[in-house]
Amino acid sequence: xxxxxxxxxxxxxxxxxxxxxxxxxxRTARRDLEALGMAGLPVYAVVGRNGGWRLAGGGRTDLSGLxxxxxxxxxAVAGPDAxxxxxxxxxxxxxxRALPEPLRARAEAASRAVVVDPVGWGQSGAAASEPPxxxxxxxxxxxxxxxxxxxxxRQGAVTSRVVHPLGLAAKGARWYLVAxxxxxxxxxxxxxxxxxxxxxxxxxxxEGFELSTAWQAVTDTVEERRAPYxxxxxxxxxxxxxxxxxxxxxxxxxxxxxxxxxxxxxREVHARAIAGRVAGLGDRVExxxxxxxxxxxxxxxxxxxxxx
Length: 308
Fold this sequence. Notes:
Layout: H1 2-10, E1 12-13, H2 15-22, H3 26-38, E2 43-46, E3 52-55, H4 68-78, H5 86-98, H6 101-111, E4 114-117, H7 134-143, E5 145-152, E6 158-171, E7 174-181, E8 184-189, E9 193-202, H8 211-226, E10 229-235, H9 240-247, E11 251-256, E12 262-268, H10 271-278, E13 285-287, H11 290-307
Parallel strand pairs: 4-6
Antiparallel strand pairs: 1-3, 2-3, 5-6, 5-9, 6-7, 7-8, 10-12, 10-13, 11-12
């Protein structure tokens, strides 16, 4: 696909030019050019001093078959900041160089517009669902235009404000807009937006802004607020999968100890919440925090009174 688009854009290419643009060897470039012709596509070689490879008849059709919205969507979900494999990202880098100029800039912008964080807050997350205004917000991020938002808070009160959209994040089942405002950088849940109208004014992007870095700072801050209490300890490796299921991102594993158990740190709202999470694992987990230990001991006494 990238090779065909490159031929379309350049009109004529040499094997050396293909090799440089698409990060392959000249031998691979010649082989792939020949393979296109053998497959019945209108690609032919021109010999001589000004030779190269051409598309018959000028080849001005859109060989990708991609519309502009499709190009934006493709690069938004599998661009450099998304959770695509290295092979997919490498293929897209080659494809974007070969896209026609009007599509190329928007594809590159789309690849920087979204970060995918598949784990929900404090737990394993489902795939993100699509809020009604997601397409409008994504277009504003890619086009670099300010938005006038009608935004509802937790109590349902709606306020209006103008924001500078900087990027979108999909975390678990929710979408978030990272934006600059008159009060500094803020994060907005897309499903709470009641309206989103482009103003036409250009976004002023903070110098050095990186979406992945900004989103990591957001998640660190939120997780710290949601789970400020920490307790360290150790666990039998056999129950680590259960701990991961129970605690999600609030579990941090360390090294393996001399007895084969694993070091860990648990984060929750308070000590009682940590005790409640791990109590069902009995003596397969040991936490060292004194308050957590008191809560676990009290849970044990209650269970003995009830069932002993």
